[in-house]
Amino acid sequence: MRAKLIPYPVFGRLRLADFLATSAGIEARTDWEYLDDVWVGEGVGFTEFLRLDEDPDVVRSVALDLADLPPEVSGAILTALRLPLATGMHSDEVLARLGDPDSVDRYVSDRATYNFTSGAEARYAVSCTVHNAAGLIYVTVLAPTPRRLAVGDLDGEA
To answer: Residue 108 belongs to a domain with what CATH number?
Structure first.
């Protein structure tokens, strides 16, 4: 991936509430099962900032529902993550900014999810879902977790 993402310690301190004008509507996530781990965190709809239940002070997963977030909020979060992306980008723009994906998933005919792994300094699994008409609609950024490191996997496929 061409983008140099945020350092792990800074990523770990991110909170969704820091990007919203009000914390009204933020829902707590508890006992949230995702990628074979149990998480806690905060979310609004499908946007969520998650921390491992076993390490509840450190964010390790950020998911952004770009179609649902106000543009100024999604832009601020993407900037904080150092991801050179914007809501509505088409796949050629995403690829131009992030490089060749590790893989591409097509679960439905009107969109594709491009999966990337960041560079050597701070390795993240980044997924970008691009809708054929609406462009970039969903982004996930996942830092390594102890379980995933133990099995030698950053991409979630042991």
So the answer is: 3.30.1450.10
Q: How many domains does the chain have?
A: 1
Question: Tens digits of per-residue pLDDT, 66-109?
Answer: 999 999 999 999 999 999 999 999 999 999 999 999 999 999 99
| Strands lying side by side in the sheet with 111-117 | 27-34, 37-44, 47-52, 59-65, 135-142, 125-131, 111-117, 103-105
Q: Please, which residues have CB within 8 angstroms of residue 87's CB and are 6 or more apart in sequence? A: 66, 67, 69, 71, 74, 75, 135, 136, 137
- For 90, 140, 153, the CA distances from 137, given in Å and listed in that order, are 10, 11, 26
Q: What is the mean pLDDT of the chain?
A: 90
Domain extent for 19: 8-150
The 3-state DSSP class for residue 135 equals strand
Q: How far is CA 142 from each of CA 24, 87, 116, rounded to the nearest angstrom?
A: 25, 19, 11
Residue corresponding to tokens 């960041």: 118
* Interacting residues of 54 by C-beta distance below 8 A, sequence separation 6+: 38, 146
The kind and range of the H/E element at 97 are: helix 91-98
